Amino acid sequence: MNRSKKCTKCGLVKSLNEFYIRKKSVSDGRAYLCKECALKYYKKIYQENPEKYWEAQKRWVRKNPVKKWSMVVLARKRDLGFDIRITFDELYQIVRNIKVCYYCGRNLVYRNKNRTCDNSASLDRINNGKIISKNTIRVVCIQCNRTKQNRTHNQFVGYCEKIADKFEEVRE
Ligand SMILES: [Zn+2]
Ligand SMILES: [Zn+2]
Fold it and tell me: Exposure winner among 91, 98, 113, 172, fewest CB in 10 A?
């Protein structure tokens, strides 16, 4: 497989990950312009017409809620000082197939922080460690995540069992 391509703007041959992912339109799944040129292009549009730029941004977010969610989550974890060992692409490929909360099984909604609801998707660190990688994360609803807090997976399940046991007789 060809791991590099030529940017149609600057003409430089760069490795594929120097190009943004464009799943549908391009055969190799990458944009025509390298990231550097693409960013310059967006910057130019922004300077010339900020309103149009923000409209395009909003449209993109509406069409790509899971991508947006993955970007925001990763950026936030990075800001909080976590050890990030997963790329945006890898996270997105995992998350795009996750439709329900790992713990309670309810349908998940991928949206931004300012519009969270009880079944908003959130990133759980399985055993509450510092490393964010394929093996240390799960997507759960925000309510399960808030309830789990800083518990490990086993601690959380034990906690739920305790509550279930306590009220078992009442249920019958
Ligand atoms: Zn370029
Ligand atoms: Zn849940």
Answer: 172
Distances from the Cα of 159 to the Cα of 34, 89, 90, 151, 164, angstroms: 49, 34, 32, 9, 9
The 8-class DSSP code of residue 115 comes to G
Residues with CB under 5 Å of ion ligand 1 are 7, 9-10, 34, 37
Confidence at 91, pLDDT banded by 50, 70, 90: very high
Q: Minimum-distance ligand to the CA of 142?
A: 2
Predicted TM-score (pTM) above 0.85: no
Q: Which ligand is nearest to the CA of 101?
A: 2
- Ligand 1 centre to CA of 6 (Å) is 8
Range of the domain at 28: 18-63
Q: Are residues 40 and 117 in the same domain?
A: no
Same domain for 112 and 31, yes or no, is no
Residue 1 has pLDDT above 80, yes or no: no
Point out which residues pair with 122 in neighbouring strands: 140
Q: How far is the CA of 123 from the centre of ligand 2 (A)?
A: 11
